[in-house]
Amino acid sequence: MDYYISNVSKVEKKEVQINGSRGAYIQWLVTKDHGANYAVRKFTLEPKGVIPMHVHKYQETVVITKGECKVCVGDQSRVLKEGDFIFIDSDVKHAIVNGESKLEFFCIIDLPEDMSIKALGEGCE
Keywords for this entry (predicted)? Predict the structure, then answer.
């Protein structure tokens, strides 16, 4: 496929399937099905939504487009707000905890052969 055009509102929104997630939804916008060597995803977290501490083999860049959240990476935590972005390397544990209002962010990832995600059962302090 030479190109692909759509609208975010037309892409199915699914619950994030990491054990311990709540109020977290994902939309896969660009994938290998479009011929890409990477993926672009949009996440929406409801107030108090959580994507718990986890690890995976792919690298990711998260770009906050609405709201504010706490991101735990390794043993550190940071508050990110609209316009902030973070790169997280492969095999680095991380979590996202939303505050009181809706959070939206885009996440760009590479597509290694192993796309598995391992929930760690740890908190984000």
Answer: Metal-binding
Half-sphere exposure for 57 (CA within 13 Å, toward CB): 6
> Residue by residue, what is the 3-state secondary structure of 16-71?
CCCCCCEEEEEEEEECHHHCCCEEEEEEEEEEEEEEEEEEECCCEEEEEEECEEEE
Give strand pairing partners of 91.
none
Alpha-carbon gap, residue 36 to 13, rounded angstroms: 20
Cα-Cα-Cα-Cα torsion 42, 45, 46, 47, nearest 10 degrees, comes to -140
- Rounded Cα–Cα distance for residues 70 and 79 (Å): 4
Domains (range + CATH), the chain: 10-113 (2.60.120.10)
Q: How confident is the model at residue 123 (pLDDT cuts 50, 70, 90)?
A: confident
Which residues have C-beta within 8 Å of that of residue 76, sequence separation ≥ 6?
Answer: none
Confidence of residue 124 (pLDDT cuts 50, 70, 90): confident
